[in-house]
Amino acid sequence: MQALVKKHDKIKTLGTRHCFNNIADSKDNLLSTRDMNKVVSLDAKAHTVTVEAGIKYGELAPYLDKHGFALHNLASLPHISVGGSITTATHGSGIKNGNLASAVRGLEAVIADGSVIHLTKAADGEKFNAAVVGLGAIGVITKVTLAIQPTFMMRQNVFIGLPVAQLKDNFEKIMSAGYSVSLFYDWQTDRINEVWIKSRVGVDAEHNQPEFYGAKAATKNLHPIIALGAENCTEQMGVAGPWYERLPHFKMGFTPSSGKELQSEYFVPLHHAVEAIEAVAKLGKQIGPHLFITEVRTIAADDLWMSPCHNQTSVTIHFTWKQETEAVLALLPLIEKALAPFNARPHWGKIFTLSAKVLESRYELLADFKKLVAGYDPHGKFRNAFLERNIYG
Ligand SMILES: Cc1cc2nc3c(=O)[nH]c(=O)nc-3n(C[C@H](O)[C@H](O)[C@H](O)COP(=O)(O)OP(=O)(O)OC[C@H]3O[C@@H](n4cnc5c(N)ncnc54)[C@H](O)[C@@H]3O)c2cc1C
Predict the structure, then answer these.
(1) Is the minimum distance from the CB of 182 to ligand 1 under 6 angstroms?
(2) Which pLDDT does position 366 carry in this prediction?
């Protein structure tokens, strides 16, 4: 890796290539981390695991579970690499759960001159906080150390048709009803299509009741896009299972989501959740024809400079779009305008149209991040069109 990085003037690292924008693209050289997928060591005493950065969560999770451990959270799919996920601040749900990058305790990376750097949360403070959600600009992350905890079991219960009006007074209660809660909504009626509640067995309240805030308990497993069969989805109906087979919505080895889609997602401070949802709802008629489904989730605040949850517990409004690029690109500025009063920050790995100037105004440490990157990569070896447009403006 050191020799490869030294040899080329321009390089972009690839994880599992699950981003929806051009953050991972290069016209020059692409370096795959696909085969860097080993567990390096597990420290049961320190409650950490060190992995090669290309490992997928779906490869790591069963290993951890077998050894009696778990991660604190997972994204909707286990198919994605640890290196690529932490780089874009990939997240699951849960008001008390930070994004996946918040579990990072140490990094090893090859920087532009081919040298190796090591950063740890314990020793490197703000330098570490700056590098973890690195947007691919710091260098090639080769190893990652993650915090782990004793393994746990979970149940997943789904409710259908939650009256949107319930969100007004009960949003935080609804989103705190389990360890991780997601709302799926198509913006077309006054009812949220599906509420997914993921609860820790023996810790959180069980949800075997027939109703939840006016929504009815599902009578079979469901897909977030209700018209699709649930074969690709993790087990529901309150059946207990290991954390890594309940936290993601989609099973490893199966196509996640619709399989043919675009995605966008915006983060706003949790206290603006209801206003932000109401603002987007006004665009429901325009959004509807191009949308498969929206997902609303929550994520705890963190201290990672480029994380959309930096210093703010957030609610995310996500859009799984049909592959209608032109229509979606025309709609995004309307959604971004509606969410502007809440200083919405976009998901780094999904499609957005906000300008570099707006991004800079919403990330108070972006200028410092650029200074730090200049130290690691003075000649822009890891810069691509995405970074030029969005970070360097
Ligand atoms: C069906 C589907 C569902 C999704 N669900 C979620 C979800 O629930 N939550 C969520 O937040 N996101 C979700 N995403 C988005 C996606 O998972 C993330 O954006 C994530 O970054 C993908 O990781 P990757 O390994 O594929 O990264 P890639 O797309 O391969 O790369 C992303 C960035 O990381 C850089 N990079 C990758 N590996 C390294 C490395 N080793 N060192 C340095 N830089 C590196 C790349 O250069 C690029 O800049 C979903 C995507 C899909 C397709």
Answers:
(1) no
(2) 97
Q: Ligand 1, atom 46: nearest CA belongs to which residue?
A: 24
pLDDT, tens only, 313-358: 999 999 999 999 999 999 999 999 999 999 999 999 999 999 999 9
Would the CB of 15 count as within 6 Å of ligand 1? yes
DSSP for 213-224, please give it. Answer: TTEEEPSS---S
- How would you class 123 by CB atoms within 10 Å of its CB: exposed for 0-12, middle for 13-18, buried for 19 or more? exposed
Say what percent of the chain tops pLDDT 90.
97
Sign of CA dihedral 106, 110, 111, 115: positive
79: nearest Cα among 19, 144, 149? 19
Q: How far apart are CA 76 and CA 4, in angstroms?
A: 33
- pLDDT greater than 90 at residue 135: yes
Task: For residue 213, give the nearest of 200, 202, 226, 197 by alpha carbon.
Answer: 197
Q: Residue 102's CB: how many other CB atoms inside 10 A?
A: 25
Calculate the CA 336 to chain-centre distance.
19
Beta carbon of 178 within 6 Å of any ligand 1 atom: no
Look at residue 260 and give its three-state secondary structure. coil
SS3 at position 85: helix
Rounded to the nearest angstrom, the gap between the alpha carbon of residue 123 and the centroid of all alpha carbons in its chain is 26
